[in-house]
Write a structure and sequence with these properties.
Elements: H1 2-5, H2 9-27, H3 33-81, H4 85-98, H5 103-115, H6 119-132, H7 138-150, H8 153-170
Helix pairs in contact: 2-3, 3-4, 4-5, 5-6, 6-7, 7-8
């Protein structure tokens, strides 16, 4: 098994070439060597073309997936600009699951939930993003802002004070 999987492309080409020549000579004794060589070269050419075709199809699919994601971003931005925050939030959630480090998507999703007054959803998004990048203080600022919007001034004050102390300690 290891020997078969360790074949390089040139070894495979040589194997195809020799086996084809052998089968042609044993099947019919009248096949000329030049004809067998031409047939083997054609087979190798076909194998190379299939390889190139496979790479082309793979690149084409990759480009189509990237295009679909751009369309989703444009659609979400259009919904957001039109004030359709529910629809925008659905698309931004989908985009954030695909690209969790995208700050633009995170910010706009947070703005959608704030506009909809869905503070629980906003906190969920903040906590989820904070798990991926807990070194950024912006998530703590966002949590404090959500607490302020909910009317929890004591929580807002404590989180703000903790942020200020941590910033002073870093200086």
């Amino acid at each position: 098994y290891k020997r078969l999987t360790a074949f390089s492309y040139t070894q495979f080409r040589g194997f195809v070439y020799t086996s084809l020549l052998f089968s042609l000579f044993t099947a019919t004794g009248r096949v000329l060597f030049s004809q067998a060589t031409r047939i083997a070269k054609r087979c190798i050419f076909v194998i190379q073309m299939f390889r190139k075709l496979f790479v082309f199809i793979f690149l084409l699919l990759f480009a189509l997936m990237a295009s679909a994601q751009e369309q989703d971003e444009r659609l979400a931005a259009q919904y957001f600009a039109n004030g359709e925050y529910e629809k925008a939030a659905v698309v931004y959630e989908k985009l954030l699951s695909k690209k969790p480090a995208d700050i633009f998507v995170y910010d706009n999703l947070l703005k959608c939930y704030i506009s909809l007054k869905s503070f629980d959803q906003a906190e969920r998004v903040i906590k989820h993003s904070q798990k991926r990048n807990d070194t950024s203080p912006s998530f703590a600022v966002d949590m404090a802002y959500i607490a302020k919007l909910r009317g929890k001034t004591d929580v807002f004050k404590s989180k703000s004070d903790a942020l200020i102390k941590s910033m002073k300690a870093e200086e």
